[in-house]
């Protein structure tokens, strides 16, 4: 048993006498694939050392089984409950045939003094409380970024919807009045057909009219207002912008006046103006609603709402959803994408991986002070998918580069950063997905490279 334990890094520096404390009283357990070692809520049964196989630690959160960690050979589990005497807070289940060494609770107590036991219990309780607080802070930090981005992005389409909805009744009422006035003019059926055809052409052209620059728009409006004044139209300033937007020319209006024999021109133009305005407001409502739906879909995709914790994903989709969420902060940033076209899909914890992209990109935006160039490159190399995110900010001082992944370490001012962002990145990539995070930084270039194994990402 000694040689087998020494194969694992955690035991390699133990003496034979120290290893005997584990092996002599220990009991070996053999579990098949999918068997539970203990369930959430079970009383502590001892310390378990994983000699062979793999364990998956899960917890039921909001009715869903969430994977907290995956333990490999040489790991030990059950230590917190053993030390505190509290029930297990998660379930441990094998993902493949496994062999474990069980060190019972009473046997553990025999090997340690009462004072050591007391100290270990206190340390375990503090560790559990600290982990719970850190996890809560992580969730709040991620939620804060998500809600801030969503609120900012929803504000514009929601405001546009409100303005359009407020203006619509007035123009519908005006349209009704102009239709009544046109009926009183008793146009011939041929003249009404001509007016309807002209109206249809205006609606179609307004939807596809090229955008004029301000000077050109102003010149055409002035020319049209002059023509309307010559025709005796009293409110030419009201009609001109809408008609110019639909591409109407004075030559077309001359022809129309001839067909209706100059009768009721102001009512006809009011009818056109109301119709075009209503169509424009409805277009605004549709576009704003579409934007809101797109944002909601992006948030659902970003958080993998209504999906299992682990999914097969396209890495590019997660990055793009993240960029949409952070769009309000990226307005002054040029984004250069260099995505590998045939990148394999990965089985990962999608919502957690999106936190990685969010934290790195958000830090890059802050470093560039909202202005600069952000480069995102992906490629496949040696059974790994690599994602490289580079900004042209001032860089990270060499003196602190080795500390940036430490919990609560931040270079931002008090109240501006939690110091959890890159710690979250490191743990999600290295611990949850068995990948790696590298950083290279010099003034004018900071580059984060995330490497994710294709076949074992997410503990699959």
Describe the protein's architecture and organization.
By secondary structure, the chain is an alpha+beta fold. Helix content is 51%, strand content 20%. It has helices at 2-6, 16-23, 79-84, 105-111, 114-184, 189-208, 214-230, 236-245, 250-259, 265-303, 315-325, 350-367, 421-432; strands spanning 27-31, 36-38, 47-61, 64-71, 76-77, 91-103, 311-313, 333-338, 346-348, 372-381, 384-391, 436-442, 445-453.
Element order, helices and strands? HHEEEEEHEHHHHHHHEHEEHEEHEE
- Envelope shape: elongated
- Tell me the number of strands: 13
The CATH architecture of the largest domain can be given as: 2-Layer Sandwich
Derived structural class = alpha+beta
Q: How many separate structural domains?
A: 3
Provide the gyration radius in Å: 34 Å
N→C terminal distance: 29 Å
What would the average pLDDT be, to the nearest integer?
79
Residue runs with pLDDT of under 50 for 5 or more positions: 413-419
| Count of alpha and pi helical runs | 13
Summarize the structure.
The chain has 460 residues and is α+β, with helices and mostly antiparallel strands. Helices cover 51% and strands 20% of the residues. It is built from 13 helices and 13 strands.
């Amino acid at each position: 048993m000694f040689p087998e334990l020494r194969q694992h890094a955690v035991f390699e520096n133990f003496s034979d006498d120290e290893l005997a404390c584990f092996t002599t009283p220990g009991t070996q357990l053999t579990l098949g694939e999918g068997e539970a070692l203990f369930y959430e809520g079970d009383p502590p049964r001892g310390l378990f050392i994983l000699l062979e196989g793999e364990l998956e630690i899960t917890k039921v959160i909001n009715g869903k089984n969430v994977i907290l960690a995956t333990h490999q050979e040489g790991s030990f589990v059950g230590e917190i409950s053993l030390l505190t005497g509290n029930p297990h807070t998660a379930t441990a289940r094998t993902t493949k045939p496994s062999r474990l060494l069980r060190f019972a609770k009473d046997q553990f107590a025999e090997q340690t003094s009462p004072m050591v036991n007391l100290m270990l219990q206190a340390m375990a309780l503090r560790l559990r409380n600290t982990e719970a607080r850190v996890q809560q802070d992580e969730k709040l930090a991620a939620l804060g970024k998500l809600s801030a981005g969503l609120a900012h992005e929803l504000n514009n389409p929601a405001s546009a919807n409100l303005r359009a909805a407020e203006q619509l009744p007035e123009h519908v009422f005006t349209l009704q009045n102009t239709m009544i006035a046109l009926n009183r003019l008793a146009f011939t059926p041929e003249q009404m057909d001509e007016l309807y055809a002209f109206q249809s052409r205006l609606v179609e052209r307004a939807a596809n009219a090229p955008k004029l620059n301000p000077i050109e728009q102003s010149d055409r409006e002035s020319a049209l207002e002059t023509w309307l004044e010559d025709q005796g139209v009293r409110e030419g300033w009201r009609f001109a912008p809408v008609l110019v937007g639909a591409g109407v020319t004075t030559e077309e209006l001359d022809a129309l006046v001839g067909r209706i024999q100059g009768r009721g021109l102001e009512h006809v133009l009011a009818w056109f103006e109301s119709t075009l305005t209503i169509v424009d407001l409805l277009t605004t409502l549709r576009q704003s609603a579409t934007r809101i739906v797109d944002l909601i879909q992006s948030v659902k995709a970003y958080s993998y709402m209504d999906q299992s914790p682990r999914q097969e994903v396209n890495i590019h989709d997660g990055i793009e959803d993240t960029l949409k969420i952070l769009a309000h902060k990226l307005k002054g940033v040029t984004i250069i994408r260099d995505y590998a076209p045939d990148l394999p899909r990965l089985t990962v914890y999608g919502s957690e991986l999106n936190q990685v992209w969010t934290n790195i990109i958000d830090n890059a935006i802050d470093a560039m002070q909202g202005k600069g160039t952000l480069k995102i490159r992906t490629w496949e190399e040696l059974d790994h998918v690599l994602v490289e995110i580079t900004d042209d900010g001032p860089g990270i001082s060499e003196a602190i580069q080795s500390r940036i992944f430490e919990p609560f370490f931040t270079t931002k001012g008090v109240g501006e950063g939690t110091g959890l962002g890159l710690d979250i990145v490191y743990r999600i990539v290295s611990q949850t997905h068995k990948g790696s995070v590298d950083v290279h930084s010099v003034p004018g270039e900071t580059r984060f490279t995330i490497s994710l194994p294709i076949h074992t990402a997410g503990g699959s």
